[in-house]
Amino acid sequence: MKFNEHAPLAIDNGASLQPGVITAINEARLSASTYSEPLTAYTAGWKDSENLDELLEYIAPSIPVARRFEFKKGKNKELFLSDIDDIRAIGSDFKRVEYSGESVNEKTVNKGLAYRIDRDEDLVSEEQVVSRLMTRLFRNEYRRATTQAQAIATNTAKTWNSSANPDDDMGEAVAAFQLATGTFPNRGLISLVAWNLRRKAYAPQNTAGANAGLSLTPKQVGELLGLDDLKVTRALFQSTETAKARILTSHALFFYGESGIMKDDPSSLKRFVTKPEGGGKFRVLRKEEGKFIYIAVEHYSNTIAAAGSAQQLTIS
Q: What Rg value do the Cα atoms of the chain yield, rounded?
């Protein structure tokens, strides 16, 4: 049976599971005895051919935490208050100010996918199954993070044609981010469609500025905007049985993020992760069931977005 990576997710009810079908993990099949150390070790050296892991870390930096964790949520406006009455009179105390904020309790969520191999149909190896399940899990996480980033973003519609200046539009979005949050964004993500519209806008203008802009790489455009980087995303997902769609369609997103941050550090999105048994990002569970081998890949994560901390351009 052919391994269908893009098939709709089936339900594993704990009874007969058809070989070749990816399902959500059924907890009833799993126990400590099903943990596979060799396949889990394989995940540590696994390379994502679509760079979904890199894109996910870029838009939602990962932060190691316990299953249940607490982080501080500050009020942005309190960081930018200014006083003209901070002069202490003789015999008086200094003006007293307060910072409110709040502590938020959260937990990481257990996620995973499973696949059943028929021993008589060895079209894919166990390692190939693990690799494809991991790719699908990363795609799921990247779609979630991108959707969350768009949900918190202030959106502006722009038309990029032969009379437009796309880089000026992106510069305005970056400036709007700073006014809204008080922090200059350091990262940008632009879809392949929007990047191509930028190129088509500059190509017919035939001016020195347009010709210079046309030759710039995404990173160079990002540097001109004051960003650490601007990445073009080409990632797809299977939207229907016969069609694919882009995870980010015709948009440019600007946000703040730093890899290696702590749980209380500022970031537009944070992806809290708990390492499962084995010490890596994933754990692989393997169980033999008669003529079948049941393989499941699991992980723990929870992506949290800060409201109003992104800017988006919708390009036509």
A: 24
Q: What's the whole-model pTM score?
A: 0.83
287 forms beta bridges with 294
**Alpha-carbon distances, residue 38 vs 26, 47, 188, 284, 316 (angstroms):** 22, 16, 38, 9, 49
Here the tokens at position 168 are: 């000026």
Q: What gap in Å lies between CA 183 and CA 306, rounded to an integer?
A: 13
Half-sphere exposure (Cβ direction) of 69: Cα atoms closer than 13 Å: 23
Q: Which residues pair with 46 in a beta bridge?
A: none
Q: Within 13 Å of residue 118, how many CA atoms lie on the same side as its CB?
A: 12
What is the residue-wise DSSP string for 191-250? EHHHHHHHHHHHTTT-SHHHHHHHT--HHHHHHHTT-SEEEEE--EEE-SSS-EEESS-S
Specify whether domain 22-74+100-315 bears CATH 3.90.1690.10: yes
User: Domain coordinates of the chain in residue numbers?
Assistant: 22-74+100-315
Provide DSSP, the chain. ----TTSPPB---SS---TT-EEE--GGG--GGGB-HHHHHHHHT---TT-HHHHHHHHS-EEE--SEEEEEE--GGGGG---S--PPPTT-PPPP-----EEEEEE-EEEEEEEEEETT--SS-HHHHHHHHHHHHHHHHHHHHHHHHHHHEEEEEE--STT--HHHHHHHHHHHHHHHHSS---EEEEEHHHHHHHHHHHTTT-SHHHHHHHT--HHHHHHHTT-SEEEEE--EEE-SSS-EEESS-SEEEEE---TT--TTS--SEEEEEE--TTSSS-EEEEEEETTEEEEEEEEEEEEEE-TT-EEEEEE-
**Low-confidence residues of the chain: pLDDT under 70:** 1-33, 74-81, 97-102, 122, 278-279
